[in-house]
Structure formats: C-alpha cells, structure tokens
C-alpha cells in the first residue's frame, strides 16, 4: 500500500518537473510592435484636388500579429488648414502641403501629401491680336491662354484648341493657320472650362480678266457704236464698287477710253489694258474702214460638173480692203436660190438634187453671185467583205455589210438584183443564200437609179462555201475549223458512251468515207468506227468499228428499235448480226499498231458494205435490210470523249467506185482467217495474196502443204444473208505426206463462226468430192469422173431461202472438160444435227472460210453475188 502511494507521488513529481522544463524552453511573448510603416504612401501622394474624396491611411506592423484594430495608432496632420485627420481618415480641406505622421508608441512613420486647388477658369488673353485683320496666306497666329488659379499653367494643364471652320482656319497645338477665306470660332478648352474667339480670314485679290473679249473683238468699223469693257475680279468678293480698276488704250488715235467705255476713233489696231492692283488683262482691237467689195475667188471650181452626193464644195472669198477684212473677222453669208439642188452650211455647198441654183455670197451690203448645176450620178454598191464564207446547206444572210446607195445617199437596197454563178447549186431567197455543195462561187449585185435607169452599178463578190460535215448528230460532236478547207476541218467527241453522227452526203448505193482518228488514253473500251445509215433513221444502222485495245473488229447490225439495248457484244440477247474479227493487227497482219492514231474507212458499192483500217481491207457485209435502200455514211463509236477526227473525206459516185477499186486492187480481200487464238497458226505467211488480174480475177495461192485443218484457214471475211451465190476456181499445186488428210474444203458457217452448215470441196487423197450438210449427215462423196485437180475445177455454191429452210446447191465443174459437172441440192432447217435443237434461224447471215488440209493450191476468179448481181 505504502509502495503504491510512493510510486504515484513520484509520477506526479516527474510530470511537474517536465512541465517546468518545457516552459523554460519556450520563447517569451512580445507585448508591443517592433516596427511601423505607412503601407499606401503612393496612393496618398497621388494628385489630390480640393474637394476630392477622403483618403484612408493604411499601416503595416511587425510582428504581423499587431494590426490597426488591436494596436493604438495615432495619425496627425502637420497642416490642418490643408488636411484634417479623423482616426485613420484624411480630408482635403484647403490647398497646401501637410506632413502626415502615424505613431504607435515610440514607433512612427511620415508621408507628405499635397492638396491642389480646383481649376476655376480659362480665358484667351490675346483676342484683340487674333481678331485683327488677317489675309488669306498671312502669318500663323498663336493663341495665348490664362488659367485660374495661377497654379495652373499651360505646362501642367491639358489645353485643347479647336476651329469651328477648318476650311478657313486650321489648328496645330496652340497655332492657327489661315487656309481659306471665311470666319471660324476658335474654342480653347481646359477640362470642362472653355473660352471662344471669332476670327475672320479675308481673301486676297488674285486676278482680273476681261469677260467680253469676243464681243469687243467682233467686226468694228470706224464710226460704229461705242463698246463697254466688262471685267471679272478674283475672288468674286472683289467688285468694281470696292476695287479700283483702270482701263487704258495703247493707241488712243484708234480707240479712245472713257472709264469702261471704248470709242472707235480711227482705222488701226490698239491694245486695251485693264489693271487692278498688280494684275492686268489685255485684248487687241481692230477698227476697220468700211468694206469696199466681196468676190468669190474659186468660181471655176464651184461651177464645174457636179454629181449629186459627190464631195461638198467650199466657197472661197476675197474681201477688200484685204488688210482689214478676211473670213475670220468678217461675217459672210452664203445663200442658195434652189436649196432642193444645193444646200448651204456656212461656206460649204452640198449637191442634194438635180437642178440649177444661183449662189449669193454677202458681207454687209456687198455681194457676189455664181450659178452651179447638179446632175444625177451612178449609184454605188459597197460590201464589207470581198469574199463571203458560207457553210454548206446553211442559209447565210447575203446582204450583211452590203450598202446600196444612190449618188445622193438614198438607200437602193430594195432595188438590188442578185445574179448567182451556179443557180443549180445556189439558192437566193429572202436575202439568204444557200449553197448545196462546197466550192468557189460568185454573186453579182446590180442596181439602177430609179430616177435614171441608165445610171447603174455592179459588184461581184466571191463566195467560198465550206463543207457542213453532218446532216445529223447526237449533240456530242464539236466541229473545229468549220470555215476552213475540208482537209483542215476536225471533229471532237465528248460522249463517254455510244455515239453516232451522219455525214452530209446524199443517200445512195455508192459512196466512200474515211477519217483519221486520234484517240487520247486508248484502251479496249474505246471503240472508233463508222456506220451506214438509212436517211432519217437514228435507231438502226450497220456499225463497223475497231476497239483501241486488242484491235478486235466488228461489223454489227446495231438495231435499237423496240427497246433493244445498245449492245456491241458479238453475242447479245437479241441475236443481232455481228461480224467479229479477232485481233486484226496480231493475227491478220492489218497495220494497226498505234492505238492512238488510226485511219478508218467504210464504203458501199451496190449491195456490199466494206470496212478498211489504214487503207487495208477488213471485211465485206451484205444484209438485205440495208442493201434494199439507199444509205449514207457517218460516225459510230464508244467512249470517244478523247477522240478527234481529222482528214475527214466522204464522196459518192464514180469517185467512190474508183477509190474502192484502188483499195481492193491488191487482192487484200483474201487473207488468213483467224476466228480466235486457237487458229493462230492460220497466218498470212501461208498465203500469197495476188493483185486482181484479168485472167485470175480475185485470187490467192495457198502455199503450205503441211497445214492442219485449223491451221490452214483462209477466206474473204465476207458476210451475206438472203439468197446468194459463191464461186471459185481451184487448182491443186501440192499435197502433204499425211495419208487420207489431203483436203480443200469451203465451210459455210453461221456469222458468229458457229457450227458449220455446209462443207464443200474435195478429198484429194481419195479423189472424192465433199458435198454435205455438216452435222446432219456423214461425209457425202461423189467419186465418179473426178476431174484432174491440177488442171482446175470450178466450185459453185448457192443458197435460196425457202419457207422454213435454206436450200443449198453445190456444183463442181471441170475447167479442162466443162461438160464434166456434178450438182447436189440439200436443205438446212437450222438444226445442228438430226433431231437436234435449233442452231440458227434460216436465211441468217453466213461467212465463208476455206480449210487447206495438208494441201496447197491456186484459188482464182473468186466471185459472189446477191440475187444474181455479180460481185
């Protein structure tokens, strides 16, 4: 128990000792501030005007635990007449300076403040000097100002000077400048106070002028009425009433002066001077003696032959005495007795009508006369252009720029007659000229004066007529160089789809057309070509074209009637005819290497329609729909928006036939037939194509005896529909060494190179003819009396379209023995095998292709006809 109490007492004692030790270690607490300062001296010493708002003294003490709220602060003013103190607040009670003292115990701080008086007045002190006479251009003047109280000066106070009329007085600082006549209120401002003074700038005399010189210098004869000088002063504030003006005469014997009045005292000249201050003006006056005479000095020229409307004539006059009188200083009057014949304007005469007139020339009471005669002259025709440019078949207003005038200028255009150099081709109607064909022509204008038919005029004008390329187009073609020769005309396309246009050529059965196509960005979708069109028909045409990619050529019956689509594919939904020639540059050797530039041409001769690329034959087509009506050539293509046609040529008649004959004369209608790349070995290298000759006609030689069936294909790329006959002569020149495969066969096939319809020819290995309907029966052979093929045989096949089938007749005839002949007639019902499905409709277009199967030979006098019309 005792131990427990001892432990407790020890603990209490320990706690007390620790507390005393901690207290001894703490810093003693401050009982008063150690420093004092005025914190807002800058604000207290700022400009302070008498009557301004009170200001409060702010103090700062250390330590910062002392504040104005917990410390006794004393603020005193050293000049209570200027600044009174109430607590920490200062009040401006009068002008002056006071030292403000802030105390806290022994600590203090001071600041000196100044109370300024309030500006009470501003006045201009030199108004008398400013309002003194001031002339425009005079020296600048300075505004002098007094401020109240005098503690305010122009150095310590902002003063503003303004002019109420800157057109008269301008201000720069305190300086005034006289810039124009007038009055201005000058205002001086200081704060809300101002003073004003009105100053006036007077003008300065700057000039004097005589205002009636024309009247003073008019004709003045000795003894005429006096004249008065009229004067103008500048500026107009100066007048004769307030300005001294003096008038003097240099020669008083000629002109006397009295004030502003002048008197003609005698003949002669005098200079009149008007003076005002340092300024003068003068005028020279002439006083003349009386006029003695008036004479017309050019009567001979005036009375010579004169035609109505010819050049005006001028009267020339001599006056006496000449040293005083002339046409410039004397009023001359010219009159015409007959103004219907001669009109007068001043000194000028004008011939206006046939007749005679007496002309009188007068000056004062003096005159002279002469007589002139005016005659009717020939009319005149003028043209703006000696050569007129006209577009073919396009009416052109012929009288544009044509004037037809009588000799007196009357319009005689209604009396104009027109003579045409070629009335068969030229039509003139309602003042419009239309010419049907390009070329050089003339038009002669003739007119007579209605008053005298013997007075006539003629004018001949050349007419250059340029070709109008199209009779119709789909508005996607732009003609360039239209008014230029044919060789310079161009056509640019803009259509990205199919596009057509028809050339301006009369429909016929004989024509030729060509153009050079320049193609930007060539590729397979860009197709260029031409078409054969029936007149007025823009829904169906025979298109012939080649693409600018692989150079595939097509001749297609492009029929868009009855809603059919525009489809150039060789196989289309409607089964329309399309003669397809595969890659003509690669496989047929046709020169078309440059995809960007190609010459394309088409022709028609009777029943046959031709296509050419770079002057080389491509194909021949004869379709009943087109051959039964006249057609005309035009443009066809696809995506021709980058294509420009140049060297555009088209014509008909004998010229067209000659052009076609020249293109075909080399025998190029014959060539290797390559339907697709599987027949790529059928090359022109295996053929010798010969020019057309009198003995062999259209011909070629097949020279390779080792060609397989699909490697020895040749033909004319000929496509016929309806009834036709196809014939040729054949002489064998060699055979290969493969047994039983030496054959010469003509196949008649569907135009798309479908299954063969007829196979017609010879089996040279077995001395047999081949005359069969392919796919319908086995080889049909005739072995009796087989002719000698080395001497030649004529092969003829014809087709007649019957009701529901085609009838083919095949005939062979020996050239050595014409009586040795054999004929077979077969029927084709459009099916590809016995009991098979329909392969084609009867009467459709077919193509012709030979297979030279391990044999060579001469093909001569190759002909074809439509309805017995020989090719």
Automatic annotation (TrEMBL):
Assigned keywords, A-Z: Signal
InterPro entries, per the entry: Big_2, Ig-like_fold
Key word Disulfide bond present: no
Residues spanning the signal sequence: 1-23
Start and end residues of each BIG2 domain: 38-114, 118-200, 204-286, 295-373
Protein name: BIG2 domain-containing protein
